[in-house]
Task: structure prediction
Amino acid sequence: MSAGDIFVPILLSVFLCSGFTISSYIKYEKLPGVAFDFKIHVDAGEKECFYQWALDGTRLAVDYQVLRGGDGTAGFAITHPNGTQILPYVWKEKDSYQTDFADEGTYEICLDNKYSMFSSLLVSLLIVNYKAEQWDLHSKALEELDVSVTNFTEELKLVDERINRAMRDQRSGQLHEIKDYYMLEANLSYIHWWSLTQCVLIICTSFFQAYFLKKFFD
Result:
């Protein structure tokens, strides 16, 4: 499942991580859904966990991808509000999870980097929680207006598929671009320090050659 597949044709309200308080949860009850998109640093040998509040009967979808660091994989697990681990840890470069009917409560979403003792990870994490029934209410409103719901829905599905495909391609392109950028940056740093080391080695070699040549004639 890709990131684009978990979006629905309703408006998702996006909140920034900073300033998100309990009042935001209360406001969420009147909104179709929320979406969060993070880029997270997970230190070597450490674990980072996030907590997403979900209303009863909503859909919860999580998608992640390792951008750089370590061996390119991260542990991923989700814990139910009752403490049961609904998705055990798996170590992959990218993965996704979706539940059609979430139970009300706080879900724990964890990223683990315990197998890497020296290198941190940069991970892109997307969390979406939305109300599927909002679209059903919209369809009922169309029926009251004597609109051909069947044709209208088919057209909307076609538009939705194209939008999802475009968003999926766009997100995939952005992630590849970020990953390539960090790779180029790492290669540039490697070439810079290796070239500097060679220059220092050449200078030292020339100095010792001149010194021993002078000592030979002395």
Observations:
- The mean pLDDT is 76.
- Residues 149-217 form the longest helix (69 residues).
